[in-house]
Specification:
The complex is a heterodimer of chains A (197) and B (810). Chain A is an alpha+beta fold and 197 residues long. Chain A has five helices and nine strands; from the N terminus they run ααβββαββαβββαβ. Chain A has four domains: 43 residues; 64 residues, Phosphorylase Kinase, domain 1 (2-Layer Sandwich), CATH 3.30.200.210; 37 residues, no CATH class; 51 residues, no CATH class. Chain B: Belongs to the prokaryotic molybdopterin-containing oxidoreductase family.
Chain lengths: 197, 810
């Protein structure tokens, strides 16, 4: 059976209707509605090309969002599937990639900066300015105290070992380059990423 | 990966050893199935567990965790004894015939130069005999007993099938059948691909595991060819990119290394980077190091990097020890030597070995910053979550900042996949609430610090005040501008010496061959030069055309280096330039230049008769069966037992484990022995989960909701453990209480005459997210690292297991 992509979506929609809605007793009307709703949703969605955030097969993705990117219209991601044009995954996704929508909208996605004071039992919500001002102050005070400009032999070593950083292996190369510049211009050498784990 | 994902389909033999691609890389693994269906390939799986990869294999052989080198050295012995090597390839393209210095030796488990006190090697004897011009001596007849191939033969002679079976627990007939299958690809037109992942890296001998297979592949003539290669299936979406850009303690972008204290000036530093060819006429491409380095300094510090200040060499941090890796960092925390730690998209409380050690370390910090889209365990290490995280908040004085970040779907940028492709992706929506990008956050910290240093002064602010930041929006730089900065530009009008073509000042460069060491070019990451040119963003290309459907797709995205898809592809053709496999040629010599489906990894017009070797990054131009001084634990691979092992090393009882493995003295008391912890454990991943992220996704949490360990039927019976019953698994460092999955997939092995049980420990659960709470596999694992990469030994350690009752709260 040869199906176009659009027909395939309809077809799988029907399968869903047969298995769940059908059982709930909606009968033929429910099936027809389910068949109509899904392609309708995607037609009105904005399609964005992306790459799966998990392993390094780097499957191509199509992300569908509501909202046309007009000023003040907030996009909401409603569906993620494999990109059939991608030469490696050819439209497929694995059990992790197929569930990406649930990680984008996870209830444990963080939405506000939070701060835990020394000895506290809970986080409290804070502003970005509070968080970044305080972090910068803590970093500068420690750097000024523990920075090693020259070693015993008098060589300029520009080294700071008392504050370290782990960089994110799901961040873009552009993010990582900017991170490198900030970290090294401070002299930081305790520096690693997930390459080892 | 030396090759591409799709190129796997060109293989005749696919070996999956040190990985489980069907479950961990399912959409890449489809190319293995393609190889089986379309190319008649045989899939061979060697693994402690009968994985889903094994379930579709043509041949499966079990192996005890941590004994892969014994197995593969046995393969090398078999290939040499049966003379099942690709002779012409080995003669022309490897260092088999080069002569090794007289001082080099191997005895009782140690290579020459071992220093007992420092637990390290003086590697000066691990090199070639040089002639008076400084070139390596060779014997093309392989008669000299000191030539590499003869020393290798001698080295692996101990790895007989009996010995392999005794160490690995693999039955001899199974081992020999795997040897036969591998040997079939010694034919010039046959190829074997090696697919591996953390199953090889996460050992105290991790790098040598991989090297041993690379040597097998060189002997079989399988490097550089279609369907061949060494293919590391990397685990995170941009772990390749972060390594390429050098986000590791001792690295700079493009695999340059950060200077050490002994490199007291740029000249001293450069004197260690000359890479003089070791054979006449060789390329030794790292000779261009200075061009890459100076161009990097120009990108980093702009006009402030000048000839007069040695291109701001002093502003780079210098290392007083080889590197500050994660094992060292948490040791420093525990010793009170660290004040602060920033975790960007990284959850070390789940990811690092010996969770208790990590928790104690974090508790001693003055401050911890986490930047993550998700509510990680690390950001809540100070909170009491019961037995899974027994913290006493009031006693922990660490200030914690939990910063909300955008995720992949909410940003533009590029990721480097396992096959070195830089693929651009686009933002689909804003992040939730006040979540911000890592670029915005890092910029925010940077500007605040720079302003404070401008106002208040302070310790050596020069690099911070002079680092380039010429972005249109300095508080939230555009990823395209950062990509262009990594690609690089001409800083003045450049005239090409041969063609006289002029590249105008400000022009984006097309390739790293344009880089110069006189300050007239800038490039933030030389291997990426060509990714974003005047023709536009090459990483965003979407032409999937694939000539001859060979699995190259040269116009899809952009691959480093120079959009080359198969590394060392000069070796796909014979010394005269004719493809070894005429039905799947990669490049060939047409009488005037190299042509084919891929960009030549070679001078495009270098004649075959010039005798330039295909391994152009190596000073001798050849593939190395003898690694010289490039590995810290020996120029040949040797079997060492894991730090925690159930048996003695039968080859050399006095040197049981890797003598130069990454082990800190303070951690030695945390290692257990076989008397108290009689079972071998190995960690692994499930196909339904990605590390510690997907437990935050509802569907995945439903699919695999709770922590378990996998125990073979024989051991379960012995210990009275029922299917789905509760067990307590203990190591010297901690314990996990969870359900038992009693399975036929792990069977006891006979190791040195004794039955050895293996327990599988999946690692996905913690105490945040949608899944049930778990203790985490890293409650058990030892803080031991590979000698070369410091990668923790998660794949082989010792535990005990006992039946227990269900926890009261469950």
């Amino acid at each position: 059976m040869a199906l176009t992509r659009r027909e395939f979506i309809k077809f799988t929609g029907l399968g869903l209707a047969a298995s769940s809605l059908g059982m709930l007793g909606f009968g033929a009307a429910g099936e027809a509605q389910a068949a109509a709703v899904r392609p309708f949703k995607l037609t009105h969605a904005t399609e964005t090309r992306n790459t799966c955030t998990y392993c390094s097969v780097a499957c191509g993705l199509l992300i569908y969002s509501m909202g046309d990117r007009a000023k003040n219209a907030h996009s909401n991601i409603i569906h993620i599937e494999g990109d059939p044009d991608h030469p490696v995954n050819r439209g497929t996704l694995c059990p992790k990639g197929a569930a990406l929508l649930d990680v984008v909208h996870a209830p444990t996605r963080l939405k506000v900066p939070r701060y835990r004071a020394a000895g506290a039992t809970e986080f409290k919500e804070v502003s970005w300015d509070f968080a970044l001002d305080r972090i910068a102050r803590l970093m500068k005070d420690d750097r000024d105290e523990n920075f090693v400009e020259k070693n015993a032999a008098g060589t300029t070593v520009n080294r700071w070992t008392s504050v370290g950083m782990l960089a994110a292996s799901a961040s873009s190369s552009e993010t990582s380059y900017l991170t490198w510049k900030v970290v090294r211009s401070l002299g930081m050498v305790v520096f690693d990423n997930q390459a080892r784990v | 990966m030396t090759n591409t994902w799709q190129d796997i389909k060109n293989a005749n033999i696919v070996v999956v050893m040190g990985g489980n691609a069907a479950e961990a890389h399912p959409c890449g693994f489809k190319w293995v199935i393609e190889a089986k269906i379309e190319n008649g390939a045989k899939l061979v799986v060697v693994d402690p567990r009968f994985t889903r990869t094994a379930s579709v294999a043509d041949y499966y052989a079990p192996i005890r965790p941590g004994t892969d080198i014994a197995f593969l050295n046995g393969v090398i012995r078999y290939l040499l004894e049966k003379d099942a090597i690709q002779h012409e390839y080995v003669r022309a393209y490897t260092n088999a015939g080069l002569i090794v210095k007289d001082g080099f030796s191997f005895q009782d488990g140690l290579f020459s130069g071992f220093n007992e006190e420092k637990q390290s090697y003086d590697k000066s004897s691990w090199d070639y005999e040089l002639d008076d011009q400084g070139f390596a001596k060779s014997d093309d007849t392989w008669q000299d007993p000191r030539c590499v191939i003869n020393l290798l033969k001698q080295h692996v002679s101990r790895y007989t099938p009996e010995m392999v079976s005794r160490i690995c627990g693999t039955p001899q007939d199974k081992f020999l059948h795997v040897c036969e299958l591998m040997a079939s690809t010694a034919a010039p037109d046959k190829a074997m691909t090696s697919l591996f992942a953390l199953g090889w890296t996460q050992h105290s001998v991790g790098s040598q595991n991989i090297r041993t297979m690379a040597m097998v592949q060189l002997l079989l003539g399988n490097i550089g060819v279609a369907g061949g290669g060494m293919n590391a299936l990397r685990g995170h979406s941009n772990i390749q990119g972060l390594t390429d850009v050098g986000l590791l303690s001792n690295l700079m972008p493009g695999y340059m290394t950060l200077p050490q204290d002994k490199d007291t000036s740029l000249d001293v530093y450069m004197s260690t980077k000359l890479y003089k060819p070791l054979r006449p006429g060789q390329t030794s491409y790292w000779q261009n190091y200075r061009k890459f380095f100076v161009s990097f300094q120009k990108a980093m510090f702009g006009d402030a990097a000048k000839q007069e200040n040695d291109w701001a060499y002093d502003w780079l941090p210098k290392l007083d020890i080889p590197l500050y890796d994660i094992i060292k960092a948490f040791d420093m925390m525990n010793n009170g030597q660290m004040t602060g730690y920033i975790c960007q998209g990284f959850n070390p409380l789940q990811a690092f070995p010996d969770r208790g050690r990590s928790r104690r370390g974090l508790s001693k910090l003055k401050f911890l910053v986490t930047m993550d889209p998700l509510d990680t365990e690390t950001s809540r290490f100070w909170q009491d979550f019961g037995p899974q995280n027994p913290a006493k908040s009031a006693e922990i004085q660490t200030e914690v900042f939990q910063l909300p970040c955008t995720c992949f779907a909410e940003e533009n940028g590029s990721l480097v996949n396992s096959a070195r492709w830089l693929q651009w992706h686009w933002k689909a929506a804003d992040g939730p609430g006040e979540a911000k990008s890592d670029i915005w956050i890092m910029s925010g910290i940077f500007h605040r610090l720079r302003d404070m240093y401008r106002k208040e002064g302070g310790a050596f602010p020069d690099p911070l005040l002079n680092v380039t930041w010429n972005y249109t929006n300095p508080i939230d730089p555009d990823p395209e501008e950062l990509a262009k900065e990594m690609n690089g530009r001409a800083l003045t009008d450049l005239t090409d010496a041969t063609t006289s073509a002029v590249t105008k000042a400000g022009t984006l460069l097309d390739g790293f061959a344009q880089l110069r060491d006189d300050g007239t070019t800038a490039s933030g990451c030389w291997i990426f030069t060509g990714c974003f040119t005047e023709k536009g963003n090459q990483m965003a290309r979407r032409d999937a055309t694939d000539p001859r459907e060979q699995g190259i797709a040269p116009n899809w995205a952009w691959a480093w280096p120079a959009n080359r898809r198969i590394l060392y592809n000069r070796a796909s053709a014979d010394p005269d330039g004719k493809p070894w496999n005429p039905s799947k040629p990669v490049i060939s010599w047409n009488g005037a230049r190299w042509v084919g489906v891929d960009v030549p990894d070679y001078g495009p017009t270098v004649k075959p008769s010039d005798g330039v070797g295909p391994f152009i990054m190596n000073a001798e131009g050849l593939g190395r069966l003898f690694a010289r001084d490039q590995m810290v634990d020996g120029p040949f691979p040797e079997h060492y037992e894991p730090l925690e092992s159930p048996v003695e090393n039968v080859l050399h009882p006095k040197v049981r484990s890797n003598p130069v493995a990454r082990v800190l003295a303070s951690d030695r008391p945390t290692f257990g022995d076989v008397k108290s912890f009689p079972y071998v454990a190995t960690t692994y991943r499930l196909t339904e989960h990605f590390h510690f992220w997907t437990k935050h996704a509802l569907i995945n949490a439903i699919l695999q909701p709770e922590e378990f360990v996998e125990i073979g039927e024989a051991l379960a019976k012995e210990k009275g453990i029922e299917q789905g019953g509760w067990v307590k698994v203990k190591s010297k460092r901690g314990e996990v209480v969870c359900k038992a999955y009693v399975t036929k997939r792990i069977k006891p092995l006979t190791v040195d005459g004794k039955p050895t049980h293996v327990i599988g420990v999946p690692l996905h659960w913690g105490f945040t997210g949608q899944a049930r709470k778990g203790y985490g596999a890293n409650s058990l694992t030892p803080p031991v690292g590979d000698a070369n990469t410091q990668t923790p030994e998660f794949k082989a350690f010792l535990v005990d297991v006992e039946k227990t009752s269900a926890p009261v709260t469950a």
